[in-house]
Write a structure and sequence with these properties.
Layout lengths: L1 H7 L6 H8 L6 H8 L15 H14 L7 E5 L6 H8 L5 E6 L2 H12 L15 E6 L14 E7 L1 H6 L3 H14 E11 L3 H11 L4 E10 L2 E9 L3
Parallel strand pairs: 1-2, 1-4, 2-3, 4-5
Antiparallel strand pairs: 5-7, 6-7
Protein backbone atom coordinates (compact mmCIF):
# COMPACT_ATOMS: atom_id res chain seq x y z
CA UNK A 1 0.00 0.00 0.00
CA UNK A 2 2.99 2.35 0.21
CA UNK A 3 2.86 2.95 -3.53
CA UNK A 4 -0.87 3.64 -3.45
CA UNK A 5 -0.41 6.21 -0.70
CA UNK A 6 2.38 7.89 -2.66
CA UNK A 7 0.19 7.97 -5.76
CA UNK A 8 -2.63 9.56 -3.82
CA UNK A 9 -0.31 12.36 -2.79
CA UNK A 10 0.75 13.08 -6.39
CA UNK A 11 -2.62 14.00 -7.85
CA UNK A 12 -1.87 17.67 -8.52
CA UNK A 13 -5.16 19.64 -8.30
CA UNK A 14 -6.66 16.91 -6.09
CA UNK A 15 -3.83 16.97 -3.56
CA UNK A 16 -6.02 17.98 -0.60
CA UNK A 17 -8.56 15.25 -1.34
CA UNK A 18 -5.76 12.78 -2.03
CA UNK A 19 -4.13 13.55 1.31
CA UNK A 20 -7.42 12.83 3.03
CA UNK A 21 -7.83 9.56 1.13
CA UNK A 22 -4.30 8.45 1.93
CA UNK A 23 -5.13 8.45 5.63
CA UNK A 24 -8.66 7.07 5.20
CA UNK A 25 -10.31 3.71 4.66
CA UNK A 26 -9.85 2.98 0.97
CA UNK A 27 -12.69 0.46 1.09
CA UNK A 28 -15.15 3.37 1.43
CA UNK A 29 -17.19 3.83 -1.78
CA UNK A 30 -17.95 7.50 -1.08
CA UNK A 31 -14.25 8.34 -0.99
CA UNK A 32 -13.72 6.79 -4.41
CA UNK A 33 -16.75 8.61 -5.82
CA UNK A 34 -15.21 11.89 -4.64
CA UNK A 35 -11.87 10.97 -6.15
CA UNK A 36 -13.32 9.89 -9.51
CA UNK A 37 -15.28 13.15 -9.69
CA UNK A 38 -11.97 15.03 -9.88
CA UNK A 39 -10.27 15.86 -13.22
CA UNK A 40 -7.97 13.02 -14.30
CA UNK A 41 -5.21 15.29 -15.54
CA UNK A 42 -3.52 14.93 -18.92
CA UNK A 43 -5.03 11.67 -20.15
CA UNK A 44 -8.44 10.02 -20.36
CA UNK A 45 -7.46 7.34 -17.81
CA UNK A 46 -5.65 7.32 -14.47
CA UNK A 47 -3.55 4.46 -13.14
CA UNK A 48 -2.44 3.96 -9.57
CA UNK A 49 0.49 1.59 -9.75
CA UNK A 50 1.22 1.50 -13.48
CA UNK A 51 -0.68 1.36 -16.76
CA UNK A 52 -1.41 -1.16 -19.47
CA UNK A 53 1.86 -0.57 -21.33
CA UNK A 54 3.95 -1.85 -18.43
CA UNK A 55 2.20 -5.23 -18.36
CA UNK A 56 1.12 -5.57 -21.99
CA UNK A 57 3.55 -8.37 -22.78
CA UNK A 58 2.53 -10.32 -19.67
CA UNK A 59 -1.21 -10.01 -20.38
CA UNK A 60 -0.96 -10.89 -24.07
CA UNK A 61 1.09 -14.00 -23.28
CA UNK A 62 -1.64 -15.14 -20.88
CA UNK A 63 -4.36 -14.51 -23.47
CA UNK A 64 -2.50 -16.67 -25.97
CA UNK A 65 -2.60 -19.54 -23.47
CA UNK A 66 -6.12 -18.95 -22.15
CA UNK A 67 -8.12 -22.21 -22.24
CA UNK A 68 -11.70 -23.16 -22.90
CA UNK A 69 -13.06 -20.04 -24.60
CA UNK A 70 -12.87 -18.13 -27.86
CA UNK A 71 -12.59 -15.29 -27.29
CA UNK A 72 -11.31 -15.59 -23.71
CA UNK A 73 -13.25 -13.61 -21.12
CA UNK A 74 -11.36 -11.14 -18.92
CA UNK A 75 -12.71 -9.53 -15.74
CA UNK A 76 -11.03 -6.49 -14.16
CA UNK A 77 -12.30 -6.14 -10.58
CA UNK A 78 -12.17 -2.62 -9.18
CA UNK A 79 -11.20 -1.26 -12.59
CA UNK A 80 -11.64 2.40 -11.62
CA UNK A 81 -10.46 4.64 -14.45
CA UNK A 82 -7.41 2.51 -15.20
CA UNK A 83 -6.04 1.88 -18.69
CA UNK A 84 -5.90 -1.92 -18.24
CA UNK A 85 -9.27 -2.63 -19.87
CA UNK A 86 -9.07 0.00 -22.57
CA UNK A 87 -5.46 -0.82 -23.42
CA UNK A 88 -6.21 -4.51 -23.74
CA UNK A 89 -9.30 -3.79 -25.85
CA UNK A 90 -7.62 -1.38 -28.27
CA UNK A 91 -4.20 -3.02 -28.54
CA UNK A 92 -4.68 -6.78 -28.25
CA UNK A 93 -4.18 -8.48 -31.63
CA UNK A 94 -6.15 -11.43 -30.26
CA UNK A 95 -9.93 -11.42 -29.78
CA UNK A 96 -10.91 -10.83 -26.17
CA UNK A 97 -14.13 -10.13 -24.26
CA UNK A 98 -13.48 -7.76 -21.35
CA UNK A 99 -15.68 -6.68 -18.45
CA UNK A 100 -14.54 -3.93 -16.10
CA UNK A 101 -16.45 -3.60 -12.82
CA UNK A 102 -16.20 -1.00 -10.08
CA UNK A 103 -18.44 -0.09 -7.16
CA UNK A 104 -18.10 3.63 -7.98
CA UNK A 105 -20.78 4.82 -10.44
CA UNK A 106 -18.57 7.83 -11.19
CA UNK A 107 -15.76 5.58 -12.45
CA UNK A 108 -18.10 3.39 -14.50
CA UNK A 109 -19.79 6.42 -16.08
CA UNK A 110 -16.41 7.88 -17.04
CA UNK A 111 -15.20 4.66 -18.63
CA UNK A 112 -18.45 4.09 -20.55
CA UNK A 113 -18.24 7.66 -21.80
CA UNK A 114 -14.66 7.03 -22.94
CA UNK A 115 -15.62 3.76 -24.62
CA UNK A 116 -18.61 5.20 -26.47
CA UNK A 117 -16.96 8.46 -27.50
CA UNK A 118 -19.05 10.86 -25.44
CA UNK A 119 -18.53 14.62 -25.33
CA UNK A 120 -17.22 14.74 -28.89
CA UNK A 121 -14.53 12.12 -28.38
CA UNK A 122 -13.81 9.33 -30.85
CA UNK A 123 -15.19 5.95 -29.70
CA UNK A 124 -12.56 3.38 -28.83
CA UNK A 125 -11.74 0.92 -31.61
CA UNK A 126 -10.89 -2.71 -30.83
CA UNK A 127 -7.51 -4.12 -31.75
CA UNK A 128 -9.34 -7.18 -33.10
CA UNK A 129 -12.78 -6.98 -34.75
CA UNK A 130 -14.17 -9.71 -32.48
CA UNK A 131 -13.08 -8.04 -29.23
CA UNK A 132 -15.68 -6.62 -26.84
CA UNK A 133 -15.49 -4.27 -23.84
CA UNK A 134 -18.15 -3.44 -21.24
CA UNK A 135 -18.15 -1.55 -17.94
CA UNK A 136 -20.64 -2.20 -15.15
CA UNK A 137 -21.18 -1.04 -11.59
CA UNK A 138 -20.70 -3.97 -9.23
CA UNK A 139 -19.18 -4.80 -5.86
CA UNK A 140 -16.13 -7.02 -6.32
CA UNK A 141 -17.03 -8.75 -3.06
CA UNK A 142 -20.40 -9.78 -4.52
CA UNK A 143 -20.10 -10.51 -8.24
CA UNK A 144 -23.24 -12.64 -8.43
CA UNK A 145 -25.29 -10.02 -10.34
CA UNK A 146 -22.71 -9.74 -13.15
CA UNK A 147 -20.71 -12.98 -13.26
CA UNK A 148 -21.64 -16.65 -13.17
CA UNK A 149 -19.36 -19.20 -11.52
CA UNK A 150 -16.41 -20.29 -13.68
CA UNK A 151 -17.20 -17.77 -16.42
CA UNK A 152 -13.86 -15.93 -16.84
CA UNK A 153 -10.51 -17.21 -18.03
CA UNK A 154 -8.47 -14.25 -16.75
CA UNK A 155 -9.12 -12.03 -13.71
CA UNK A 156 -7.22 -8.82 -13.06
CA UNK A 157 -6.94 -7.16 -9.65
CA UNK A 158 -4.71 -4.07 -9.71
CA UNK A 159 -4.64 -2.73 -6.20
CA UNK A 160 -8.20 -3.74 -5.36
CA UNK A 161 -7.15 -6.27 -2.69
CA UNK A 162 -4.90 -3.55 -1.24
CA UNK A 163 -7.75 -1.03 -1.02
CA UNK A 164 -10.31 -3.50 0.34
CA UNK A 165 -7.84 -4.77 2.94
CA UNK A 166 -7.70 -1.25 4.40
CA UNK A 167 -11.22 -1.95 5.62
CA UNK A 168 -10.13 -5.26 7.17
CA UNK A 169 -8.83 -8.59 5.94
CA UNK A 170 -12.26 -10.30 5.98
CA UNK A 171 -13.27 -8.05 3.10
CA UNK A 172 -10.11 -8.94 1.17
CA UNK A 173 -10.75 -12.63 1.81
CA UNK A 174 -14.31 -12.26 0.46
CA UNK A 175 -12.91 -10.49 -2.62
CA UNK A 176 -10.55 -13.40 -3.26
CA UNK A 177 -13.37 -15.91 -2.73
CA UNK A 178 -15.54 -14.18 -5.33
CA UNK A 179 -12.67 -13.93 -7.81
CA UNK A 180 -11.98 -17.65 -7.50
CA UNK A 181 -15.68 -18.45 -7.79
CA UNK A 182 -16.06 -16.71 -11.16
CA UNK A 183 -12.68 -17.93 -12.44
CA UNK A 184 -12.77 -20.92 -14.77
CA UNK A 185 -11.14 -24.12 -13.42
CA UNK A 186 -8.12 -23.61 -15.68
CA UNK A 187 -8.12 -19.82 -15.49
CA UNK A 188 -5.67 -17.34 -13.94
CA UNK A 189 -6.16 -14.61 -11.36
CA UNK A 190 -3.49 -11.90 -11.22
CA UNK A 191 -3.19 -9.54 -8.29
CA UNK A 192 -0.92 -6.57 -8.97
CA UNK A 193 0.44 -5.02 -5.77
CA UNK A 194 3.45 -3.51 -4.05
CA UNK A 195 2.83 -5.68 -0.98
CA UNK A 196 5.76 -7.90 -0.01
CA UNK A 197 5.46 -11.59 -0.97
CA UNK A 198 6.18 -12.58 2.62
CA UNK A 199 2.83 -11.02 3.52
CA UNK A 200 0.68 -11.79 0.49
CA UNK A 201 1.76 -15.31 -0.51
CA UNK A 202 0.78 -17.13 2.73
CA UNK A 203 -2.71 -15.64 2.60
CA UNK A 204 -3.22 -16.58 -1.05
CA UNK A 205 -1.84 -20.08 -0.53
CA UNK A 206 -4.12 -20.67 2.44
CA UNK A 207 -7.28 -19.52 0.65
CA UNK A 208 -6.80 -20.63 -2.97
CA UNK A 209 -8.22 -24.16 -2.48
CA UNK A 210 -5.40 -26.12 -4.07
CA UNK A 211 -4.69 -23.76 -6.96
CA UNK A 212 -1.08 -22.95 -7.76
CA UNK A 213 0.16 -19.63 -6.33
CA UNK A 214 3.31 -17.95 -7.69
CA UNK A 215 4.78 -14.45 -7.76
CA UNK A 216 6.72 -12.42 -10.33
CA UNK A 217 8.58 -9.19 -9.63
CA UNK A 218 7.67 -6.22 -11.84
CA UNK A 219 9.51 -2.97 -12.47
CA UNK A 220 10.70 -0.92 -10.89
CA UNK A 221 8.26 1.57 -12.41
CA UNK A 222 8.98 5.17 -11.40
CA UNK A 223 11.28 3.84 -8.71
CA UNK A 224 8.82 1.39 -7.15
CA UNK A 225 8.99 -2.40 -7.34
CA UNK A 226 5.69 -4.24 -7.76
CA UNK A 227 4.62 -7.86 -7.78
CA UNK A 228 2.26 -9.93 -9.89
CA UNK A 229 0.65 -12.67 -7.80
CA UNK A 230 -0.72 -15.52 -9.94
CA UNK A 231 -3.39 -17.92 -8.76
CA UNK A 232 -3.80 -20.61 -11.41
CA UNK A 233 -5.94 -23.69 -11.88
CA UNK A 234 -4.71 -26.94 -13.32
CA UNK A 235 -3.84 -27.03 -17.03
Amino acid sequence: MAALRRKLLLLGPSRALAGSLASSCLADRCLWDRLHAQPLGKGPTFDWFFGYEEVQELLLSLLQKAPDASPPRVLDVGCGTSSLCTGLYTQSPYPVSILGVDFSPMAVAHMNNLLQGGQGQTPLCPGHPDSRLHFMQADAQNLGPVAASGSFQLLLDKGTWDAVARGGLPGAHQLLSECLRVLSPKGTLIQFSDEDPDVRLPCLEERSHGRTVTVQELGPFRGITYFAYFVKGSH
